[in-house]
Amino acid sequence: MKISRKKFLALAGLAGSSIIFPGNALLNYGKENKGKDNNSKASITYKKIKLNLGHTWTISRGSTDFKEDVFVYYTNEGITGIGEASHMTGTGQNADRTIEELKKIIPLYLNADPFKFYELTDEVNKEIKDISPAKAALDIALFDWLGKRLNIPVHRFFGLDPDKYVDTSFSIGYDKPEILKQKVKEADPYKILKVKLTSINDEEIIDTIRQVTDKPIRVDINEGWKNKEEAIRKIEWLSGQGVELVEQPMPVDMIEETRWLKERSPVPIIADEAVNTSKDIVPIAEAYDGINIKLMKSGGIMEAFRMAVVAGTLNLDIMIGCMIASSVAISAAVQLQPLARWLDLDGSLLISNDPFTGARFCDGHWIMPDEPGIGVKENRVQSNK
Ligand code: MG
Predict the structure, then answer these.
(1) In what order do the strands lie in the sheet with 290-293?
(2) Which residues, given as ranges, of the chain have pLDDT below 50?
(3) Which pLDDT belongs to residue 362?
(4) pLDDT tens string 276-293
(5) What is the whole-number distance in angstroms between the Cα of residue 22 and the centre of ligand 1?
(6) Is residue 272 assigned to a domain?
(7) pTM, full prediction
(8) How many domains does the chain have?
(9) 223 and 133 in one domain?
(10) One domain for residues 177 and 204
(11) What is the DSSP string of 26-83?
(12) What is the 360 CA–ligand 1 centroid distance (Å)?
């Protein structure tokens, strides 16, 4: 089936912005993609890789020493796009479950015209309704492929300014005071710290960190506070300690209590567990000042962009965050960094055996890759032990 240049631009939401697309690539597309015969040449493979953590990672839901991620390779017309599924600690997500979910949606990708990615996202969401890193892995691989196919970086699909950035925070997991101090010292290259609190010893943790640094701190409670009066007391104390925002202070279903908190809080309250996709935003919009968009929650780049659009209409600020992941998932998220007021992309900086090279971290922030696609390369030698 042929697709006109005008129709493609409309699908990409970029009608009238043809200057960003290499004309030859689009002309070639019209000649070469004649329908299912051509699309049937697509192939998809995947593999598990174990990512080792520099430190044991502890948050309110649990602890882990390593992550096992699933990497997806979408090949069509001799071009391969790479995607990654990374999993949220303590939620039941894991590599084997992701592979089972991949098997359900890979046929949709094999049979699809890859340029109809907007419709493909909707088809995938019908097949798997819940949050699924498998959806993200395939979506990232497809966008990487599209960028390589058109010879442009992914951020150009969305008309984003590659020079626009904010410093990223670096996460400090919950730990004993002496180890916390060591972690803060090791975080020297990072300008902002994100500290996981669990409701136990919150003041002691911040006091300990303040003994060794005066950097801005962001705190993530991961739903750990259950009482709004206690929560506001802690937030007022934290704001006096240089804490500049509080992420997911209370359980997701305590929307009214969180709205009460937001009205009184001297610092922004950000939703994380409370929002996965664009459909989740309207019901919680009055309870938060901003939302944390993550590719592994949204199901990929396309839905993450939709979330940013919806948040903008509701005057919610945007944080872009991540799971612990390799340079594949992080470089994909960096493609959207110009949309963010706050950035929390440290996943690949927390692992010691990144199998990929991608977006470069420099002076507290990410440099937007200018290579086609998401801008990653697989390292030649890999450790899977
Ligand atoms: Mg969080």
Answers:
(1) 169-172, 192-196, 217-220, 243-247, 269-271, 290-293, 317-320, 342-343
(2) 1-39, 385
(3) 94
(4) 999 999 999 999 999 999
(5) 38
(6) yes
(7) 0.86
(8) 2
(9) no
(10) yes
(11) HHHHHHH--SHHHHTT-EEEEEEEEEEEEEEEEETTEEEEEEEEEEEEEEETTEEEEE
(12) 23
